[in-house]
Specification:
The complex is a heterodimer.
Chain A lengths: L6 E8 L8 E8 L4 E5 L6 H9 L6 E6 L8 H6 L1 E4 L11 H11 L4 H14 L15 H15 L3 E5 L7 H16 L3 E5 L3 H4 L5 E6 L2 E6 L1 H7 L7 H12 L1
Parallel strand pairs in A: 3-7, 3-8, 5-6, 6-7
Antiparallel strand pairs in A: 1-2, 1-4, 8-9
Helix pairs in contact in A: 3-5, 4-5
Chain B lengths: L2 H16 L3 H6 L1 H22 L7 H14 L11 H4 L8 H13 L2 H16 L8 H24 L3 H24 L2 H18 L10 H20 L28 H14 L2 H19 L4 H18 L21 H27 L5 H31 L1
The chains are: A alpha/beta, B mainly alpha.
């Protein structure tokens, strides 16, 4: 593991109003080439954490660094170092699938030749070749989600922040996404992934952060979390259930 | 909540979204143009009435104009997708919600019919043959419209798409036949005919299988009805994007593809793609064509120069609405766009388009013979100056807005 984490979150407190923080002293990091699962109940603060990382929300306290830099230090470099896949697809109705990919590639300053090669591969991988020239408004929810995922992957930044990516995806889409995330990871990219489908991410993530009521209850590898609840070898669902039950 | 009150509240909510735009509609150039066209039409129609061609098919003209207006029916129910969950349990009480929708569908379409009838009346008075008094003509047309509205309402409830289409065709045929009978035949004869045909039509409407409340069909119709209302508003002013129609325009797909490939130009790429598929493009093209015709028509006078400058200004005002494009979209904040790139892209595109259009609008003045060169070239200079002045105003205003 490299000494400088791709993502470093230190003592993060924040929320929608200053007097009522949603997050309380959240701290974790994501190392290069690591896939980290952010798990928690609805309202635990996963999306709020991600919004802080993206810079859509300002921390009340604490600091977030991507590749050692805060958003205030180098806003453009910070932003181009990460790609986000939101829980609900947010697309421009006026753009086709291919134009979305091109817009993302232009914004991330991807070399045009690399864009063409990547976009063709992604369209094929996610079975979207036939829809490449369709306006996004004519796509199903699952297809829109695929476009969001493809836009993130066409950019190839050091960090991916992915919120509930499996919602609406068909089984082939889920498999394609998981395989591609593995490939990106092997190429050195880091992924912070939130999902409720624990049985799936259990086999793919290197580490897990369990968030509950805005606080980190525990974090570590599956084995470390198993030891944390004094049940070595426990599955992620069992670990999560025990941790959250104790956190109540 | 009581269902009738819910309908009233939803209706008020819709109009509270629309009404704030009306002052802008009145101020907009298109409204002025419509007024000018109305005055021009009034002058032409008066002259036309004074010297009517002897073989003018007046009754056919009446059928052509009054027929579709009498038969056309449409409803705004303000139903929402979530109603399938929340209002479905109250389906048996939905009459109190839907009755006002049906009633308003009739009432608010009558004024249009009355206006056209009054416009046609001087023509009708000059026709030979059967003549009905104005009050009777109006009464019969409104009754026929009520019958058509009832038929259209029943059609909405028909379960089969094919039957629905068939009954729609039947309604148009029946009602057009009744309007024709009324226009051509004596009152007693056509009244008898109308009575018999209407009874048969109402009986026929009882046959097909119908939903009590056609939820999905009504929700889909409401969505397109609301979009259409916002679209009409969009001809005059910029309305929120949710009401905007996206037009594919495949022939413009390549526009914007050759922009320089860097993050600073990425937003311009998005903006150009959006503009080519927006209603705004349609508005700008229509205004440009109209401006070219009117400017060319008056190219030998000061009026031509004034119209030219007016159109440059009107189109500039429309182009300024590009500023609102994707302004509230959170998606843009997910992409690493350089600071100020959005404002710069809007300013550049709006100014470039306006300067180009200023030249286009001026072309008829130079191409058509007989214009005063000083006036012609002076107009161009004035138009380009105006366009650049608007650019400076936008830059200043938007900088202030960003600073706030």
């Amino acid at each position: 593991m490299s000494e400088l984490p791709v993502l470093q979150v230190d003592d993060l407190s924040g929320g929608y109003s200053v007097g009522r923080p949603v997050l309380h002293d959240v701290a974790f990091d994501v190392q290069p080439g690591e896939m980290v699962g952010l798990i928690g109940l609805n309202g635990a603060g996963k999306s709020t954490t991600m919004k802080h990382i993206l810079g859509l929300m300002t921390p009340h306290q604490g600091e977030i660094r991507i590749s050692g830099q805060t958003r205030n230090d180098q806003p453009e470099q910070y932003q181009s170092s990460l790609a986000f896949v939101p829980e609900s697809p947010l697309l421009y109705e006026e753009l086709t699938v291919r134009e979305h990919l091109e817009f993302a590639a232009r914004a991330y300053n991807v070399d045009p030749e690399a864009y063409r090669e990547r976009s063709e591969r992604l369209l094929k991988l996610f079975h979207m070749e036939e829809k490449a020239d369709s306006l996004s408004m004519h796509l199903s929810k699952g297809m829109k989600q695929k476009v969001m995922i493809m836009c993130a992957f066409v950019a190839r930044p050091p960090l991916y922040v992915i919120d509930e990516p499996f919602l609406g995806l068909d089984p082939l889409g889920i498999r394609s996404l998981l395989d591609f995330m593995q490939e990106m990871k092997q190429n050195g990219s880091s992924i912070l992934l939130s999902s409720h489908i624990l049985s799936t991410i259990e086999h793919y993530c290197d580490r897990f952060i369990v968030l509950h009521r805005g606080k980190v209850l525990a974090q570590g590898t599956l084995a470390e979390l198993g030891e944390h609840i004094h049940t070595p070898g426990a599955g992620l669902e069992q670990i999560f259930y025990d941790l959250v039950k104790d956190g109540e | 909540m009581e269902l009738r009150a819910l309908y009233r509240r939803r209706r008020a909510l819709f109009w509270s979204k629309v009404l704030p735009y009306l002052p802008y509609v009145l101020q907009s150039g298109v409204a002025v143009l419509l007024l000018i066209l109305s005055i021009a039409f009034a002058a032409w129609y008066t002259a036309f009435l004074r010297d009517l061609p002897p073989d003018l098919p007046i009754r056919w003209i009446m059928l052509l104009l009054l027929g579709p207006l009498t038969v056309h029916a449409g409803f705004r129910t303000y139903l929402q997708p979530a109603d399938i969950l929340f209002l479905l349990p109250q389906e048996s009480k939905m009459n109190s919600y839907l009755t006002p929708a049906f009633r308003n569908g009739l009432i608010y379409k009558v004024p249009g019919l009355v206006i056209i009838l009054l416009l046609l009346w001087p023509l009708y008075q000059r026709s030979t043959g059967v003549f009905h008094p104005l009050w009777l003509m109006l009464l019969v047309l409104v009754l026929l419209k009520a019958l058509s509205t009832y038929g259209a309402w029943q059609e909405l409830r028909i379960a089969s798409l094919r039957a629905r289409t068939g009954y729609r065709l039947l309604r148009w045929c029946f009602l057009l036949l009744l309007v024709a009978a009324w226009i051509w035949q004596p009152a007693w004869k056509s009244a008898l005919f109308m009575l018999l045909l209407s009874l048969n039509y109402v009986l026929l409407l009882r046959f097909p299988l119908k939903h009590k409340v056609p939820w999905e069909h009504l929700i889909a119709l409401e969505r397109s009805g609301a979009a259409r209302a916002m679209l009409v508003l969009g001809w005059f002013v910029e309305v929120p994007a949710d009401g905007q129609k996206v037009v594919r325009r495949r022939y413009l797909s390549a526009v914007g593809n050759r922009l320089p490939w860097n993050p600073a130009e990425a937003y311009r790429y998005l903006l150009i793609k959006t503009f080519t598929r927006s209603e705004l493009l349609g508005i700008v093209v229509r205004l440009t064509l109209l401006g070219m015709v009117l400017t060319g028509w008056n190219d030998q006078s000061w009026l031509g120069a004034a119209l030219y400058l007016l159109f440059v200004f009107l189109i500039g005002t429309q182009l300024a609405s590009l500023r609102q494009t994707h302004q509230d979209s959170p998606a843009a904040s997910y992409y690493p766009l350089p600071a100020g790139a959005r404002k710069a892209a809007v300013l550049r595109l709006a100014t470039g388009l306006l300067l180009g259009i200023a030249v286009l609008l001026w072309l008829p003045m130079i191409v058509l013979p007989g214009g005063d060169p000083a006036l012609t070239f002076g107009s161009l200079a004035g138009g380009l100056l105006l366009a650049w002045g608007m650019h400076s105003t936008w830059a200043h205003k938007w900088r202030e807005e960003d600073d706030e």
